[in-house]
Design brief:
Layout lengths: L23 H6 L11 H13 L14 E11 L8 H16 L5 H16 L9 H17 L1 H4 L5 E6 L3 H17 L4 E6 L4 H4 L13 H14 L5 H5 L3 H7 L2 H14 L9 H4 L4 H19 L15 H15 L5 E8 L1 H10 L21 H4 L5 E9 L8 E6 L2 E2 L9 E3 H14 L3
Parallel strand pairs: 1-4, 2-3, 2-4
Antiparallel strand pairs: 1-5, 5-6, 6-7, 6-8
Length: 442
């Protein structure tokens, strides 16, 4: 067990960008961060820009080197804000607190939370996993800024946009919102929208389950100890129940705690009034504990955990990473006239993609898992509508000049461990990424 939770940092030898340290003080100032991958897109981008630059706004982009102009974009984006993914969870939340109310377990605060939860569950009836209006707005905003930042790509007749989505409705609707925004400004665009099972092998490749370490009893025990350490049911429940010990014999308080966290997290992307008590229920300490637990999940499942084989743990994104390179090369070789490849999917594809390509330190191998939240933050990588944009630049006056690329991770200039950036030589980026993809194979 000690081998898994070693306190040595020597294993973190890969490039690591500075991450925001999560503390109670940080969460007290920016409580939205605690919701991890539920965080509202615009809020996430602006918060982390303020932390880094002092300015609560979208980041300012560095001008291209003299003579260079953008000509092609490769993109992968997560769907926008959605309702909680499980209708069964909604039903359990409502039924459990309703039972607690009827059987007299809840105190005054608990009764108010029960009312708020009932409103939330009623609003979400039959809508689990669906894109919310806020989620649609997020993609409209991203599209507007993409056009404003790189107008050269969309101007002119004959510009072709290739857009693909996974088969999940919230992703299809995210693609629709994005592409409608493009067409509203540039009506002459040719936009080819598509979705189908034939694209799933790279758009959203299910975790293959072949990772040897994740199945071991040692790793399962270590994971459970981590979750138990940050998910104790003696915090919020103590404030909701008259007698928490008696309530613990009647209800699964661990699940109640998780339900409260998930419910409060969903509220960022749902336009719902009358649930103010639920919005402010959790303390910074409780949010930090839940954040640590969720952060560990994202790192252990979709990042380069050294105990799980490092980059091999991201193999589920190998097809997507290879497709990005393949389609870019087709444009560069004159085999494709596409100006932008837009892809709309899920956090469980975006997170391993960022990790396998090691964008902004997402692929850092971290040994000290107990303090993971101080060096690696999922909420910076996969907020609702999180995305990566790879912008290609050429020098129109020098055909022999290197093709350059700039990478935006959530519209923020990202770094790679192969130079200072934010502009990199495509051939060097391609070579680095191809090696990472090769190394991800078992």
């Amino acid at each position: 067990m000690k081998a898994i939770f070693t306190l040595l940092l020597a294993g973190a030898t890969l490039y690591c960008t500075a991450q925001t340290k999560m503390s109670k003080e940080t969460l007290d100032k920016y409580p939205a961060i605690s919701t991890s991958n539920y965080i509202y897109y615009d809020t996430s981008v602006k918060i982390f820009n303020e932390i880094k630059t002092g300015k609560y706004d979208y980041p300012t982009l560095t001008k291209a080197p003299k003579g260079y102009t953008p000509f092609y974009i490769s993109h992968y984006g997560r769907h926008g804000s959605r309702y909680h993914y499980s209708q069964r969870d909604y039903s359990w939340w409502a039924a459990t607190l309703d039972t607690a109310k009827n059987e007299g377990y809840l105190n005054e605060l608990g009764l108010q939370i029960e009312k708020d939860m009932a409103l939330l569950c009623k609003d979400a009836e039959g809508r689990a996993g669906d894109l919310t209006p806020a989620g649609r707005k997020q993609h409209q905003g991203i599209a507007k800024r993409m056009m404003a930042n790189f107008p050269e790509i969309f101007k002119g007749k004959g510009a072709v946009i290739d857009a693909k989505s996974t088969v999940v409705p919230r992703c299809l609707l995210s693609m629709d919102a994005f592409c409608q925004e493009l067409r509203a400004k540039y009506p002459d665009l040719t936009i080819n929208n598509d979705a189908g099972q034939c694209f799933q092998y790279y758009m959203m490749n299910e975790q293959d389950g072949n990772r040897p370490m994740v199945k071991t009893d040692e790793w399962k025990k270590a994971s459970m100890e981590f979750y138990m350490g940050f998910g104790k049911a003696d915090l919020a429940c103590k404030r909701l129940f008259k007698d928490v010990e008696a309530a613990g014999k009647r209800f699964n308080l661990m699940r109640v705690e998780q339900a409260l966290y998930n419910a409060t997290s969903t509220l960022q992307g749902v336009e719902l009034e009358g649930v103010d008590q639920l919005r402010t229920l959790l303390t910074p300490e409780e949010m930090l504990n839940s954040y640590k637990s969720g952060n560990f999940y994202w790192y252990s499942t979709f990042a380069c955990v050294p105990q799980l084989g490092g980059v091999k743990n991201t193999h589920c994104a190998a097809n997507l990473a290879a497709k990005i390179i393949e389609e870019a090369e087709a444009v560069l070789n004159g085999e494709s006239n596409v100006k932008a490849n837009l892809r709309f999917g899920h956090d469980s594809a975006l997170m391993p993609l960022l990790s396998i390509l090691n964008i902004n330190g997402a692929g850092t191998e971290i040994e000290e898992l107990a303090t993971l939240h101080n060096t690696w933050s999922a909420c910076e990588y996969v907020p609702m509508a999180g995305n990566v944009q790879i912008i290609f630049y050429k020098n129109a006056k020098d055909a022999k000049a290197d093709i350059l690329v700039k990478i935006l991770q959530n519209e923020t200039e990202a770094k790679l461990p192969i130079g200072d950036g934010p502009y990199y030589k495509w051939n060097e980026v391609k070579a680095y990424w191809l090696k990472r993809i090769e190394d991800s194979n078992y």
